[in-house]
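Workshop exercise sheet. Pairs work together: one partner reads the sequence aloud, the other fills in the structure field after running the prediction. Swap roles for the next sheet.
Pair: D.N. / O.F.
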Amino acid sequence: MAEGGRRLDQPRSKGLAAPKIDADAFGRFSEGIARFLGTGRFLFFQTLIVIVWITLNLVALRFRWDPYPFILLNLVFSTQAAYAAPLILLAQNRQADRDRVQAEEDRSRAVTEQAETEYLARELASLRASIGELATRDFIRSELARLAGEERDGPDDGRRRGGSRQQPRN
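Structure field:
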């Protein structure tokens, strides 16, 4: 223990108060910036500003705030890149997280659908087996026709069923 009873292996409980930043709000803000930086509108306006900047610094002698090597313009671009790159990376990370969650949901949905498909396939196989044991319409008609034919021909004398009944002798 150090003097004053404070432990040195643990951080102090009181320190500089860091501002509370809502991570989701900042993430949405960075995604908005990243989306804007990737548009044709941004490129158009940035090109327009660069053309005006260079034109004013080359032509207008009175307004030369950034002479030829355009160091201030390079500083502006460097600052823009320094802020844009982390914002774009943050937006990409958030998109990767959303994609990962979506992939997990798709995977679980696919497993559920596969189980349902297998169940339906088993049910269909059992129905096909049950239907195979049922008498079909054609089979019933042929049996009824056979029975009607037997009835028309008279009493059964055993010949139709392959019986070996003997004929009476005279």
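Discussion prompt: The chain has a mean pLDDT of 83. What would you look at next?
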